[in-house]
Amino acid sequence: MIQRTIEQLASMMSVENDVTKYKDHSIKGIAFDTRMMEEGNLFVPLKGENADGHQYVENAIAKGAGAVLWQKDMPYPPEELPVLMVKDTLVALQELAHSYRKQIPVKVIGITGSNGKTTSKDIAAAVFSQEYRVHKTMGNFNNHIGLPYTLLSMEEDTEVAILEMGMSSKGEISLLSKIAEPDVAIITNIGEAHLQDLGSREAISEAKFEITDGLSQNGLLIIPGEEPLLHNKITNLQQIRIQTFGETGSNDVYPEKIRMDETGSEFTIPSFKEDVLFLPIPGKHNVLNALAVFLAAKDFTIPYSSIKAGLKSAELSNMRMEWHEGMKGTKILNDAYNASPTSMRAVLSMFADMGGDRDRIVVLGDMLELGEHEKEYHQQLGMELNPESIKYVFIYGKLGKYIAEGALKHFSRDRVFDFTEKSELIKRLTEKIKGNEYILFKGSRGVKLEEVIEALEK
Length: 458
Description:
This protein has helices at residues 6-12, 57-62, 89-103, 117-128, 146-152, 172-180, 195-198, 201-209, 228-234, 284-299, 304-312, 341-353, 374-384, 400-407, 422-432, 450-456; strands at residues 3-5, 26-28, 30-31, 42-43, 67-71, 83-86, 107-112, 134-136, 160-164, 184-187, 220-224, 241-245, 256-261, 264-269, 273-279, 322-325, 331-334, 360-365, 392-396, 416-419, 438-442. By secondary structure, the protein is an alpha/beta fold. Strands 8-9-7-10-11-12 form a six-stranded parallel beta sheet, sandwiched between helices. The protein has a six-stranded mixed beta sheet with strand order 16-17-21-18-19-20, sandwiched between helices.
C-alpha cells in the first residue's frame, strides 16, 4: 500500500496549505471509511448524498489516523494531526491514485463490460499470478472511489494490477481509465445493464469504449469480435493494437470442443494448440471471458503452460457461479449477484447444456434497471425458457411476473410458479423437490435470492 511522507503526498495532488511543519511525517495506506481505518492511515473524508465524511474525522483520529485530507470549504479542520487542505477530497483521492500508479513500475489491465467483469478479473488474477506479483480489485471497489482505493492499496513491488471498471453513467469509465492508464483494456461484452440510465445499447457501447481514453500508447484493446457496436468504433483508433475473441474463426482466438458439467468447462483454442484447457467455471460465456484473458496473457508473454495452470486454478467472487449442497441431494447454482437479459440467457444456456441426467429447476428474480422496456425484456426471457430442459420455473418479484407470463406460452401452468413473498416461494419449492435436482438461482442483487438459497442448503 502507499507509504509516503506528508511532503511527498503534497507533491502528488493539489494541496493548498503549507505542510512544511509535518513534511517528514509518514502515512501508510488510506481509508475513506472509519470502519476500515488502520493505524497510520491517511483518512479521506468524502462528501456524499446522505453523509459527510468530515463528521467522522474525530473517530478516525481516535482509531489512529496519521493524517487527514480536508475540503477547504468545510470549517473547523482538526489541529492535532497533519492536515492536507484540498479543494475537493474526492478529486484529491483520484489525483493521488493516479500519481501513485505513475510512480510504480506496474503494468495495468483494465476490464469493463456489461457482464463478466468480475469473472474476467478473477480469471486474469489466477493466470497472471503464475508469473507476476498481482494486485486485483477486491469486492465491488470498481467505481470512482473504489478504483483509486484499489490502486493506493497496491504494494510497491506489484508487477501487474488487474482493475475492474464499473459505471452507472456516461463519462465514468473515461475517468477511471485516465486514472489507471491501462496497458491492456478488455471489454467483455455489451449488454443491457444500465439501459435505464443510458437508454440504448449503442449508448452503453460508447460508455464502455471510454476505457480507451486512458489506454497507453501502443496499448492493447481486446474486444468481442462479434459485437458490431464496437467494431464501428475501432476504425478511428490510432496507435492502439486490437485483438478479438469470440465464437467463430474470424477472431484472433475462439473455442472448440467445449464440454461442461457442474465442475467447470473444458475447451481447446485451435489457433494455438489442441491441448485441452480446463476452467473450473461452467458456461460458454465464461469460456469467452477466459479467451479475453488468454489474449492479455499472450501479450505479456506468459507461457502456455502457465496460462493453462492459471485457468485451472481460477476462483470466483461470492455469488458468481457458486455451487452449494442443497436438501435431498440437490445441487444449487448461485449466480444471483446481478442480472440482465444477456447474463440471464448466458447462464440459462449453460444450465441447459450442462452434463448429467438430473431434473433442472430455475428460480429467477427481477432484472432491475432496464428502463422503459423492462416489461418486454422480462416477457421475452420467459418465452425463451425451454420446457424440454427445465422441469419447473419459479419466479420471484414484481417484474418477475412478466417472466412467468412469457414462460406460460410454452409451459403448462403446473410447472410455472410466481411469487412476491419469499416464504411462499420456499414452501412451494421444497414441496416440488424430489431429490438430486440441479437448481439455478439468478436475479438482480437487490432481489436477495440468497435468502431462499439459505433455506434450501443442506
